[in-house]
């Protein structure tokens, strides 16, 4: 039984006044008895003589409706006739309480996807509703709340201590650039979905490094500073720098629909660029062996004149020029973010002293930002110093990336012989990333980092770019920093078998870049044979499937000749 109490106002010639509250009960057959009692009492009301019959008729026709106030006149009834609509089966002379049904939901801390309140694990990534990933990093349990996290963390930390016990003495050979003020850069405007480029990205990585005893611990910090105007002007136009600086005076602003800023964003962007510049200088001068820039906002989409793709200042470009200012003649930038670094390519498009190599999803220009075709090789005398490896589909995994490193990246980079190497390390190609939708694992990032660490005498700077699944980005970043600390790589490089799409992409790139890097020709010829073997194998499988059943020869001239031709492949049903 449900009862609702509602206040009703009666209208009189003198104005309005509140009538007593009444209860309407859903009692089945008792409702008619109650209505009849109301009718009998209404018949005794003090309605005027000339209007008595009319009021009686109204009461008979509206047995399920509320009792009329005594002060209501016929004229008032006429003026309020909408309250007596006979076509309406429900009570219409009282306004029901409006009940707003609120659907409770929560956004996953790990991947930002929305979930209904009655589930405890994210439907997309499986992370627990009360995940401890921001406190314990990827060592936090995926399925259990805080109670079980301490045990998981302590076990992980114990294993890390065993692995890294050798490296702890020597050192501050690896520097990490991080400043909490970069966490103040966030989207102010509340939208229907959290922005993927959020402060939690740095928090999760920092928590993972802390849980592993890496930072603070085995890595040394460097002090943060804002990049100077003069240093920024070597990369960006004055107009671009001024536009970013204007956001200091704005509570919330947008450069593009997906690139936000608040009053702290310009400061955070300058701190990020300053950390990258100082790390590059420290590494090249020999004060530290290598480094990891744990910075945001990211930078590789920021071009000479514009901010876009979550990026304000181009951190990798700033680091490259800082390394050259410290004495490096040739700088290699390898960008493995799943999105093409259009800003970095634009900045160095005509520069032969910086070799830019990018591995990214392209899909014929349909994947953001649409640039990065294999035919974009550099301009005005710098042809061949821009190398794009554009994947034709999503789901690209470790084998395709390592295969491309073996046959394109390392051969070109070794011939270029860089003095300094920078990795634009976006981890949005990692398994589980909601934007990248690829399948690279921490082991894959470990292997790629290890391969690049053999270049430029080990002078290597890793700059964080994208990556929006906290568990993926924190585990991958931790794996990369372990390599910087001297950790061994257990991956086997022999017999790496790429996907067919991956092989075709590598062949396309080799065919284009052979004009500028002749040392690629032998690899191209070898892979052409491998492609031919793929084609022969595919044809053999098709023939084998077609000849699973060989019909008798005499079917060709008998009543089963149609079936004969279908089975032998001479006739195809549409």
UniProtKB/TrEMBL annotation:
Family that this chain belongs to: Belongs to the histone deacetylase family. HD type 2 subfamily.
Record field: compositional bias (Basic and acidic residues): 27-54
PROSITE patterns cross-referenced by the UniProt entry: ZF_RANBP2_1
Species in which this protein is naturally found: Gossypium hirsutum
Domain RanBP2-type residue range list: 106-125
Annotated stretches, region: Disordered: 1-62
Principal place of residence: nucleus
Residue stretches of biased makeup (Polar residues): 1-19
Any GO BP: regulation of developmental process
Pfam families, sorted: Hist_deacetyl
EC numbers for this chain: 3.5.1.98
Reaction(s) catalysed by this chain's protein: N(6)-acetyl-L-lysyl-[histone] + H2O = L-lysyl-[histone] + acetate
Domain of life: Eukaryota
Gene3D superfamilies found in the cross-reference section: Histone deacetylase domain (3.40.800.20)
One term under GO cellular component: cytoplasm
Matching SUPFAM superfamilies: Arginase/deacetylase
Sample GO molecular function, one term: zinc ion binding
Compartment(s) where it occurs, according to its Swiss-Prot or TrEMBL record: Nucleus
CDD domains: HDAC_classII
Cofactor: Zn(2+)
Keywords (A to Z) from UniProt: Chromatin regulator, Hydrolase, Metal-binding, Nucleus, Repressor, Transcription, Transcription regulation, Zinc, Zinc-finger
Protein name (database record): histone deacetylase
